[in-house]
Amino acid sequence: MISSKPFFLSLFFLLLTLFSSTSLALDCSKHDILKNYRISNTKDVSPIFESIEKDTPPSKTKQQWWINVCNNKDSDHKNLPDKCSSDTMLCGVEYVTIDDQTLLIELIDFGMKTETSVSVSESNELTIENKGYKWGSQVLNSNIVFQCDTSKENDEVQEFAWGSDDYLEFTVKGPSGCLLKKNDGDNDSDGGNGNDGGNDNDDDNDNNTVKKSNGHSWFFWIIMYAFLFTLIYLCATSYVATRGGSLADFREEFVERGTTLIKLFPQFCKELIYRVLHGSNNSNSHRGGYSAV
Question: Fewer CB atoms < 10 Å away: N or C end of the chain?
Answer without folding.
Answer: C
